[in-house]
Amino acid sequence: MFKKILVVTDFSPNSLKVMSPALALAARFDGTVYLRHVDEEEEALSNHSSQDLVDFLVHVESKRSLWLESLANEVREQDISCEIVRLKGWASKEILEYSMEEGMDLTCISALGGQGFKSLLMGSTSSNVLRNAKQPILFVSANCSPPDSTVVKTVLYPTDFSEVSLRGTVFVAALCEQLGASLELYHVMKIPAFIPALPGEPPLVLPSSLLEKMDVKFEDLLAGLEGLIAADRVTCEVATAGDEAEAIAAAAVSKKADLIVIPRRGHGVLAELVFGRVAESVAKLAPIPTLIFHPDDVEE
Fold first, then answer.
1. Taking the model in full, what pTM does it have?
2. What's the rounded Cα separation, in Å, for the pair 209 and 220?
3. Which numeric CATH code is attached to 154-297?
């Protein structure tokens, strides 16, 4: 499933958080890790040519080469094949192009990238990659601190019962089967801001007919997974919340999930504006790694 795994690092503590879950998937699928760093200095400082700057860039180059080789050796010590990739240019552009051109099955990235004015103008590196990548993305937020050795036992899959989400259940069921993990299907019914009941009135509750419709939808969804994953390893839940992303992030904690897998509805800025940014918001809020994919971009 994941044979070619791109792992992006800028050597910051946050960027290194993605190593543990990325290596766990590489080990499970006998994949090769492509450890990648993008040098942005030459692109950013191309109009300067002082000797001091040249010496600085040479010094940075040597340091990064040592750091990359050290990280690669740590990966190889776990019997995982690892290749080093060094590119120059703007990070998000280079990451997206390399992932497409080299046919990466999975791109792993943490909360890293642009700061200050460039970030406000163009978006951070991680946001640009999340929003525009066509291949599956494994993202680790700044709120997440994965254990040194990641083991995926429970996968949380939020579904809105859309066509894209339903097609994505085939992928996530296959993933859980290969990982030996249980699958938590989770639907959030978005509701208006909470309106408290007046004194003496019963609290507002969802109509039973609506909940019954949700049960039918889950039954249909489970029927489509028959033969893909054992029924006793799948559970379903409906929740209500004013913010879907926050509810999903909270459910990951309450259910002690190890990985969130969530489908996206499209690629690029237009798709995000039309369909919202639930997947991206979940990835940035979640206290556990999040795998974002589009059903059309993965082999079932």
1. 0.82
2. 17
3. 3.40.50.620
pLDDT in tens, 138-159: 999 888 888 888 899 999 999 9
Whole-number Cα distances in Å, 286 to 112, 146, 249, 251, 279:
15, 11, 5, 10, 10
Q: How far apart are CA 283 and CA 138, in angstroms?
A: 9
Residue 69: Cβ within 10 Å count: 12
Burial of 252 (0-12, 13-18, 19+ CB in 10 A): buried
CA distance to 90, 122, 192, per residue, from 125 (Å): 9, 9, 33
Where exactly are the structural domains of the chain?
A: 4-140, 154-297
Report CA-CA distances (Å) from 165 to 103, 149, 218: 24, 30, 12
Given this chain, do its domains 4-140 and 154-297 carry the same CATH topology? yes
pLDDT given at position 189:
83
What would the two tokens of residue 229 be?
């994953």
Give the Cα separation of 87 and 100 in Å (integer). Answer: 15
pLDDT 10s digits, 160-177: 888 888 889 999 999 999
- Which tokens go with 245? 């992303």
CATH of domain 4-140: 3.40.50.620
Under DSSP, the state recorded for 99 is H
249: its two tokens: 């992030």
